[in-house]
Design goal:
The complex is a heterotetramer of chains A (about 240), B (about 290), C (about 325) and D (about 260). Chain B has about 290 residues and is mainly α. Chain B is built from 11 helices and 4 strands. Chain B has a single domain (about 1-275), classed as Orthogonal Bundle (ABC transporter involved in vitamin B12 uptake, BtuC). In chain B, a hairpin with a 2-residue loop joins strand 2 and strand 3. The longest helix of chain B is centred in the first third of the chain and has 31 residues, at about 1-30. Chain C has one domain. Chain C is built from 14 helices and 2 strands. In chain C, strands 1-2 form a two-stranded antiparallel ribbon. Chain C is globular. With about 260 residues, chain D is an alpha/beta fold. Helices cover about 35% and strands about 25% of the residues of chain D. In chain D, strand 4 (about 60-65) and strand 5 form a beta hairpin. The termini of chain D are far apart. The chains are: A alpha/beta (about 240), B mainly alpha (about 290), C mainly alpha (about 325), D alpha/beta (about 260). The interface of B and C includes residues 106, 223, 227, 263 and 274 of B.
């Protein structure tokens, strides 16, 4: 399978803080790659660096055979990467409809079809179509954020901790949706909930203290008790 | 009764002029987090260039268009040269925009001479209608109508168009707007130019209203616009309309009944709002 | 370290001594008047530096305190006897009024964010300007009024020496003020207000103290200014005065005290020469444009000002430690 | 014995979400308690409520039995609640020693003295120098804080916290963002503070080995709620904790 995104020895400073100190991994087209690691390990910053929100200080990021580490965020987004941030990034005073409309770069039939598709995935959004984004529940915001990333034709979706702060029932729903989306696009997922990650992910990358520790197939990690204990605090 | 109506129209007209000035200020602040102390300079440039165009073409329509064009061009220059280098640094922004204000008003004196100029009301809008005992000055009514039309247009753009949606989204979360593939810096520039155009429009409308124009008028009016922005809520477009009308009316009634307090009343209004509701009457951030 | 400190002190002493004997060796009236003017604006600019440079507050209303001093002195000298006693008393009265007003205004406004504060000071100061314009029985509005200075200062030289003395005293006082434990907290507020709070300092108190000290000293400058002109009108309350102080502080170097003095010298001298040039080239009538441009460039490219830059270069030569690799990013603000 | 710090039904809501949900906890004097929980569990928010950075929607914090409702963060610090921040928060353009001296100055209540030169307060300088020795930063005393590495800044942060000499220390992820080589030094500093036995310490951390090693007790926050509170051994063996912390379906997965 072809490599869609390649992150190669990326270092990122935020202000004076050296947050990423050498992150490398690859995401193959059609797979779900999961970034694992404890709090503050640099997973969120890795996604932000890919998006150009906290640009890489050094290292290379190749997406779709083009290097993107110097590109501005909007260029990266239009190049085909959708982003679902940790805090969901919902525009609180815009309605659900408007939130999706802002995101839609081309309002053509294909986009509207995709919108129909995500609304089937998240019927709640249709129900609250004219409601302000700020008044949605945490789970609904998560769904809206994911829907918003999906209405454009993205080759790659970056999803940051979709289960954070959600009740288990809602997490199940979100997981189902990701499983659906996986059929249509490549996904990089940051997730602390290992069980959820292990069910969805094809490959994993372990990040600790801003560095890639190990990458591999998810099923290998499931059996590697030592690695899990050491870096995820499991067991 | 007729006195009341006259004061009302007077206040509304002044309020509309302040609104046009404040609208740009508040939009720029809401979206870009920049408080532009040079905004009054753009206003004064609108007034002077409008009067100049009017003298040249003898057409008030062309004068208005000329002033707006001047505003757009100056807005472009200001954003690129003055605002862009200091995004995110409040103290520097305050200092540098004030510096640019000095340059703008001194440049006026270089280009148009240091003296104040007379501004004529175009013949079509001169004079007044008398309805019973009530005298309605045509030009004031004209300003009020223009003000409402501009408000309507901008409200439509903000609520109903894609660019307006992007601007409103940008006020709430700039990072996310970019992550959705929108070049927010371009949007910044457009909004800045639109705000400058509004300021210039306000200036050109102001000229026949007050009869004379002078370089310092920018600063004087800018203070009123600041007050309006604070009262209405930074970044709130409808808030600035309401606050501008409030300030205009307060000014016109006070000027008649308690002239000594006419400027003070606005300051008081602002002080009260700042102390008890520092975010203003309306809030724009969602 | 200690010796460098001593050298500085000696150098300062020599400069002050040279300035003190200057009027005895030179009989240039123009220079005496010009230097007096520079000293007065040095005092004003130093007081502004307490706000901008040491506490990190941008005020656009500093002129009102300057104006209070100017009017207090002018009115008292005009209404009562023009004696040295009344002159001193008027300075004290001006300082008290400025202190009270800056305390009240500060208490109400200093909890606001920088934008709001700058705007509000501009508005309040505008209010005082209007008050002075309207209260004609007291101020004669924009026309202003002349008054007689105490006989003792009829001689320009005596006044020159008095102002120089005030400058030295104010400098020494403010130097000690910023180097005191309290002054250190002011700097902490400038650097990181939230952290200063979490150390247990009530930062609002410090900001109010800074604004009172700045207001009182500005009032002194105003008093001295009025007597140097023997005339006062509402121009002492205008934005131009605040802008002058701002310009001098920024160009000279914020947060240094010496900077504003040098800034005052540079700007007053430049103003003098540029307006002299206006007779030949009319463009120089608008000399303030050049200041505006220089000021904008200074804010962007030269934020340390003259003194700050010299100090920085000196410090870099002495401490060739390489700075932590911290690439400055031009990202969007939060 | 009256606990030095306790909370009663402490709750805060942001918009629709309850970030801290009805937390009741107490910590005895001179105790070392760690707070753990997954990302977004509300740990830092909990600290913010204790230190007065945020106002609770409901409930209250008690320090030595006294309610802290309505007390500002300034007055809480003065009473004896000192905290370090997750994001390093020092005075960048002051030297290291000046940073610490400011904190000592606050403790010594030298707040508004304005006529003596600050260097004439010799005691401040001596105390500050001692603190820098404790956190192993003496060699950098005259460097500007902005020149320090991240780890050194965290040490400086701890020195400033110690300088306040408060009875309770709230440490919010003192090792966050540190390179591996820098961690042991901070650990040593925290161990030293613990060994003196004079202070009550609350620690938010993720490095489990470190927590197990240091803590007298551990409390677990999950979705804003207090899930468990007990000795390190209890917590390790607590099944609910494993469930919540490691992802709801872990056991099922093992099977």
């Amino acid at each position: 399978m072809s490599i869609l995104l390649k992150v190669d020895n990326v270092h990122t400073y935020i202000g004076q803080y050296h947050i990423l100190q050498g992150v490398s991994f690859e995401a193959k087209a059609g797979e779900v790659s999961v970034l694992l690691g404890r709090n503050g390990a640099g997973k969120t910053t890795t996604l932000k660096t890919i998006m150009g929100l906290t640009p890489a200080t050094s290292g290379k990021i190749t997406f779709d055979n083009k290097s993107i580490e110097k590109n501005p965020t909007y260029d990266i987004a239009t190049g085909g990467i959708g982003y679902v941030p940790e805090d969901q990034g919902i525009f609180g005073a815009l309605t659900v409809e408007e939130n999706l409309k802002v995101a839609m770069r081309k309002e053509d039939d294909a986009a509207l079809a995709r919108q129909e598709y995500v609304l089937e995935l998240f019927p709640d959004l249709k129900k609250y179509w004219k409601k302000d984004g700020g008044h949605l529940s945490g789970g609904q915001k998560q769904m809206l954020s994911m829907a918003r990333a999906f209405v454009n034709e993205s080759k790659l979706l970056l999803i940051d901790e979709p289960s954070k702060g959600l009740a288990p029932v809602v997490i199940e729903k979100v997981m189902e949706a990701i499983n659906e989306m996986k059929k249509q696009t490549t996904i990089i997922l940051v997730e602390q909930n290992f069980i959820m990650a292990s069910k969805i992910g094809d490959t994993y990358t372990l990040i600790d203290d801003g560095e890639t520790v190990q990458s591999g197939l998810m099923r290998e990690l499931i059996d590697n008790e030592e690695l899990k204990r050491k870096y995820l605090g499991i067991g | 009764m007729e006195l009341l109506i006259n004061l009302l129209i007077n206040g509304l007209a002044t309020g509309m002029l302040i609104f046009l000035l404040a609208a740009g200020l508040t939009l720029i602040f809401g979206l870009m987090d920049v408080l532009n102390f040079a905004h009054g300079g753009l206003f004064a440039w609108g007034a002077f260039s409008g009067v100049w165009f009017y003298g040249l073409t003898n057409s008030f329509t062309l004068a208005i268009l000329g002033a707006i064009l001047t505003g757009v061009v100056l807005g472009f220059i200001t954003e690129k040269l003055i605002i862009k280098p200091v995004y995110g640094n409040h103290v520097q922004q305050i200092l540098i925009t004030l510096g640019f204000m000095i340059v703008l008003s001194e440049m006026l004196k270089v280009v148009f001479g240091p003296n104040q100029l007379a501004a004529k009301t175009p013949p079509l809008l001169a004079g007044s209608w008398e309805i019973g005992d009530v005298i309605i000055i045509k030009y004031r009514l004209f300003i009020i109508i223009i003000g409402f039309i501009v408000f309507g247009i901008f409200q439509f753009i903000l609520k109903r168009t894609k660019i307006g949606l992007v601007v409103r989204a940008g006020v709430m979360n700039k990072e996310m707007v970019q992550a959705l593939g929108i070049n927010i810096k371009k949007v910044f520039l457009y909004v800045f130019m639109a705000g400058a155009a509004l300021a210039a429009l306000s200036g050109v409308l102001m000229a026949p209203y007050s009869g004379v124009i002078y370089a310092e008028m920018g600063m004087e009016f800018a203070i009123l616009a600041f007050i309006v922005v604070v009262i209405g809520g930074m970044g709130s477009f409808p808030g600035s309309l309401l606050a501008a009308i409030l300030v205009g009316l307060a000014g016109s009634f006070m000027a008649y009944y308690v002239p000594a307090l006419s400027l003070a009343v606005n300051m008081m209004l602002m002080a009260i709002v700042l102390i008890f509701r520092p975010q203003g009457l309306f809030t724009a951030k969602g | 370290m200690k010796s460098a400190f001593q050298v500085n002190k000696i150098l300062l002493f020599i400069i002050v001594a040279a300035l003190a004997v200057f009027p005895f060796v030179s009989d240039s009236r123009t220079w005496t008047i010009l230097l007096t003017q520079i000293f007065i604006f040095s005092i004003l600019a130093m007081s502004y530096d307490i706000l901008l440079g040491y506490t990190g507050i941008v005020s656009f209303g500093h002129a009102m305190f300057f104006g209070m001093g100017a009017y207090a002195t002018a009115i008292m000298l005009d209404r009562f006897e023009p004696t040295v006693g009344i002159f001193v008393l008027s300075i004290v009265v001006g300082m008290c009024i400025a202190g009270i007003i800056s305390f009240l205004v500060g208490l109400l406004t200093l909890r606001l964010k920088s934008h709001f504060f700058a705007m509000l000071t501009m508005a309040v100061s505008g209010l005082f300007l209007v008050l002075a314009e309207k209260w004609r029985t007291l101020t004669f509005g924009n026309d202003g009024f002349t008054f007689r200075a105490p006989d003792f200062f009829k001689d320009r030289m005596m006044y020159y020496l008095l102002v120089l003395g005030c400058l030295v005293l104010v400098y020494l006082f403010l130097r000690r003020f910023v180097d005191s434990p309290l002054g250190r907290v002011l700097i902490a507020v400038r650097e990181n207000e939230q952290r200063t709070k979490s150390l247990g300092f009530q930062t609002l108190h410090y900001k109010v103290i800074a604004s009172v000290v700045a207001g009182v000293i500005a009032s002194l400058a105003g008093s001295l200014y009025a007597v140097s002109l023997r005339f006062v009108n509402t121009s002492v309350l205008t934005m131009d005065i605040t802008l002058d102080a701002l310009l001098m502080t920024i160009i000279g170097g914020v947060g240094t005290l010496i900077g504003p003095i040098i800034g005052a010298g540079v700007i007053e001298l430049a103003q003098h020469y540029l307006s002299g040039l206006a007779k030949e080239h009319p463009i120089f009538e608008r000399w303030i444009i050049f200041f505006g441009i220089v000021y904008i460039l200074a804010v962007i490219f030269f934020p340390r000002g003259i003194v700050g830059t010299v100090k920085h270069l000196f410090w870099k030569r002495k401490n060739p430690i390489k700075l932590a690799i911290a690439p400055k990013r031009k990202g969007l603000a939060k | 014995m009256e606990p030095i710090l306790r909370t009663e039904n402490l709750t805060i809501k942001f918009g629709g979400q309850t970030a801290v949900d009805n937390v009741n906890f107490a910590v005895p004097e001179k105790h070392f308690k760690s707070i753990i929980g997954p990302n977004g569990a509300g740990k830092t928010t909990f600290f913010n409520l204790i230190s007065g950075e945020l106002k609770p929607t409901n409930g209250d914090v008690f320090f030595r039995g006294e309610s802290l409702a309505g007390k500002s963060s300034v007055s809480r610090t003065r009473k004896g609640l000192g905290r370090s921040f997750q994001i390093t928060n020092v005075f960048p353009n002051l030297t290291v020693i000046e940073n610490v001296r400011l904190a000592v100055q606050s403790k010594e209540k030298i707040r508004y003295q304005f006529f003596r030169h600050f260097t004439s307060y010799k005691d401040l300088q001596i105390q500050a120098e001692k603190l820098l020795e404790i956190v192993l930063l003496s060699s950098k005393a005259n460097a500007f804080a902005t020149q320090l590495s991240h780890g050194e800044k965290r040490k400086l942060e701890i020195a400033m916290l110690l300088a306040l000499d408060t009875d309770v220390l709230l440490l919010d992820e003192p090792t966050a963002g540190m390179s591996l080589e820098e961690v042991p030094a901070i650990l040593d500093v925290i161990k030293q503070i613990k060994q003196t036995g004079e202070r009550t310490i609350l620690l938010i951390e993720h490095k489990m080995d470190m927590i197990m090693d240091l803590s007298d007790s551990i409390m677990v926050l999950f979705n804003g709620r207090l899930l468990a509170d007990g000795t390190p051994q209890d917590i390790m063996n607590n099944e609910t904790v494993q469930h919540a912390y490691l992802g709801g379906l872990y056991d099922e997965h093992l099977a």
